[in-house]
């Protein structure tokens, strides 16, 4: 039986500063079913507090501990490894690392940090890695959409450091399996009891289905026609938007055992 | 292995092999004299991207090496050739000191990207400009893809990581003109009348000097000065690339 629903934020619940039409209401309906809801995102430059603020402004009823970001995942990994990270992250992401020691670093964490992506700082990171520091990538997006056009994401800079040192980064964000498993930590739910709803076929749906979740692809945000053909197996369901996904869940997935194969 | 032909040409790497920054490798000047007494063609080949041929010559003369400018073949030379062949206007991500080697090449309204070792230009804003040109279809030319190089204060990122970053971002492949590309070694022999099988390459970078040269049929001699000092044992196998 379905016990948990993971929901992507940007492109699924909202597009920049506008909510997807009907999404607030759909979320309310979803909560009326007895499922755990978690909001998952790869955003690297917004702390949980910032995300929460934006969502509340858009009248979504969400609490901070329901949000799981790739920054959260990075912090977990840093704590598990007991390392002191050099944080190549945006200033606005730093609150999510409060309490983590960063002096005399012996690890490198890379997020989206345009102001830090210059030779001198990258060189410092390079030298730490040569000394054996682990490289943790919040995610490896190649680029992202800004108001003034496309702009380099963190991926190219992670790749640069991997190339320079011949080591591989541990990527903590979507579509990594560990991201989805970590998102369920503390919920008491298994991947097989979970549905993921998102607009990025590879990173949201593909990633989730790879750990045994069902994936619902929504045609908002970065969705482009034909995306559903890019993963194998294809999405469990492709539908118009988040409200449609919620309708499907309420009508088909609550009272029966989840199907384990996409139709 | 087939019997080798007689040796006719020797390619010599510069930085790390003949000299380390502003100091000659001990005994190198004298060794070069002895090499010249044999009847071999000598060419000095380098991936240095931040020095024009004139600068290189000046430094080598100061260190009392007996070399002439037309014996020097650099990856900047190779890059300029390619830009001229393709008839493009490059955005030059190269050190200011390399610009003389591009004199006469139009660079306004660029429709190509040339990447060398340019620490001052390797920051987000400029890399983003290059990224957008590439998305518009501009070709990406890499002077070489060295992962790092030796500076006085330790190892430092080479141009390779930044070329790789742009390749990753755009899903396109750079045309690399420097070592260890085959074309670099073949271009270096142009005009000498010598074949790769009649050539030895001496250098300190296992993959770029020795591996690259052996891949076109030359013999490679790896010297333990310069770059090789800092490299792990596991990369000693230069092998096939």
UniProtKB/TrEMBL annotation, chain A:
PANTHER family: 4-NITROPHENYLPHOSPHATASE-RELATED (PTHR19288), HALOACID DEHALOGENASE-LIKE HYDROLASE DOMAIN-CONTAINING PROTEIN 2 (PTHR19288:SF46). InterPro entries: HAD-like_sf, HAD-SF_hydro_IIA, HAD_sf, LHPP/HDHD2, STAS_dom. The lineage of its organism: Eukaryota, Metazoa, Chordata, Craniata, Vertebrata. SUPFAM superfamilies: HAD-like (SSF56784). This is Haloacid dehalogenase-like hydrolase domain-containing protein 2. It comes from the Eukaryota. GO terms for molecular function: metal ion binding; phosphatase activity. Belongs to the HAD-like hydrolase superfamily. Keywords: Coiled coil, Magnesium, Metal-binding. The keyword Cytoplasm does not apply. Residues 1-78 form the STAS domain. Its cofactor is Mg(2+). It comes from Equus caballus.
UniProtKB/TrEMBL annotation, chain B:
Keywords: Coiled coil, Magnesium, Metal-binding. PROSITE patterns: STAS (PS50801). Residues 1-83 form the STAS domain. GO terms for molecular function: metal ion binding; phosphatase activity. SUPFAM superfamilies: HAD-like. It comes from the Eukaryota. GO terms for cellular component: cytoplasm. Pfam families: Hydrolase_6, Hydrolase_like. Its cofactor is Mg(2+). The keyword Cytoplasm does not apply. The keyword Magnesium applies. CDD domains: HAD_PPase. Signal peptide: none annotated. InterPro entries: HAD-like_sf, HAD-SF_hydro_IIA, HAD_sf, LHPP/HDHD2, STAS_dom. PANTHER family: 4-NITROPHENYLPHOSPHATASE-RELATED, HALOACID DEHALOGENASE-LIKE HYDROLASE DOMAIN-CONTAINING PROTEIN 2. Belongs to the HAD-like hydrolase superfamily. This is Haloacid dehalogenase-like hydrolase domain-containing protein 2. The lineage of its organism: Eukaryota, Metazoa, Chordata, Craniata, Vertebrata.
């Amino acid at each position: 039986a379905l016990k948990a629903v993971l929901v992507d934020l940007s492109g699924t619940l909202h597009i920049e500063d506008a909510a997807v039409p009907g999404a607030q209401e759909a979320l309310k309906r979803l909560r009326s079913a007895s499922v755990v809801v978690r909001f998952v995102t790869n955003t690297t430059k917004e702390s949980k507090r910032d995300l929460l603020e934006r969502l509340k402004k858009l009248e979504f009823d969400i609490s901070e501990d329901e949000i799981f970001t790739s920054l959260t995942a990075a912090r977990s990994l840093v704590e598990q490894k007991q390392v002191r990270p050099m944080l190549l992250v945006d200033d606005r992401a730093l609150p999510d690392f409060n309490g983590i020691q960063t002096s005399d670093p012996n690890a490198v964490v890379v997020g989206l940090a345009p102001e830090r992506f210059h030779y001198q700082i990258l060189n410092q990171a390079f030298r730490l890695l040569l000394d054996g520091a682990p490289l943790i990538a919040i995610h490896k997006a190649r680029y992202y959409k800004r108001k003034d056009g496309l702009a380099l994401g963190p991926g190219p800079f992670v790749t640069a450091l991997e190339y320079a040192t011949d080591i591989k980064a541990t990527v903590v964000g979507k579509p990594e399996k560990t991201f989805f498993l970590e998102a369920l930590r503390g919920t008491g739910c298994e991947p097989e009891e979970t549905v993921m709803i998102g607009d990025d076929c590879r990173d949201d749906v593909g990633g989730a289905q790879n750990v045994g979740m069902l994936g619902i692809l929504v045609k908002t945000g970065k969705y482009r026609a034909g995306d559903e053909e890019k993963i194998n197996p294809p999405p469990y369901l492709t539908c118009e938007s988040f409200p449609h996904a919620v309708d499907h869940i309420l009508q088909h997935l609550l009272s029966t055992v989840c199907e384990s194969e996409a139709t």
